[in-house]
Amino acid sequence: MIGMLTGTCLMVGSGEAILDVNGVGYILSCGSRTLGAMGIGETICLHVETHVREQAITLFGFSTEEERAWFMRLQSVQGVGPKAALAILDILSPGEILSAASLEDKTAFARASGVGPKLAARIATELSGKPPPAGRGIGGVFTAPSAAPMSGAASREGLSDMQLRNDAVSALVNLGIGQSDALRAVASAYNTFSDDPPVDDLIRVALKELGN
Predict the structure, then answer these.
(1) Residue 88's closest CA among 58, 113, 54?
(2) Cβ(59)–Cβ(3) under 8 Å?
(3) Is the C or the N end of the chain the one with fewer CB within 10 Å?
(4) CA distance 93 to 162
C-alpha cells in the first residue's frame, strides 16, 4: 500500500491531480482544498489512502494526515462513501469536523455537496462523543510530511486547531471529566473565539461551559 507520495505536480484537474514521482505519474483523487493549494511544477508531498476494489485501485491524496484520518473516520458511518467524505472535508477542516460532531451539529455536515439532512444527522449522531482518529502517527500523534510539505495555508489547515482542541480535551479528561463531556465543552468553548486561543484560555472557557 502507498501511504505518502512526494513528487512534482504535473497536472491539476477536476477532482484529481497527477504527481510525477521518479518518472512515474500517479493519479490522485483529491478534494478541492488540496487541489487548490497545488501548483503545476511544484514539489508536493501528499498523505495517501489507497482503496483497492475489484475493478480499480484508487489513490486519495491529502495535504495533512488529519484530513486522511478523518476521510477514513467519516466513511465508518453507513452511507458515507469516498465522494461524500471528500465533500465534507472540502467545507470543514478536521477541527471543525470534530466540533460539529461533538455538538451534534447536523447542519454543518448538511452543507457538504451530496450530503442530505438524514445522512448529516446520522454522521453527527454516530461521531458524537468519539475522540479524533489517531492517524498513522506513532502513539496516536500525527506526523507532518518529512520532506517537501505542501506550501501555503492549506498545509497548516487542520493542524493547529486540532492540536489545540486535543490538548484542551486531554487536560479536562485528566481533571476527571468524561471524554464526551470534554469534547462538547471544548467544541462549544472554541466557537466563542475568533482565532486560535492560548490553550489555557480554551480550557478556562471550557470549564465555564461545563459549569453552566
Answers:
(1) 113
(2) no
(3) C
(4) 9
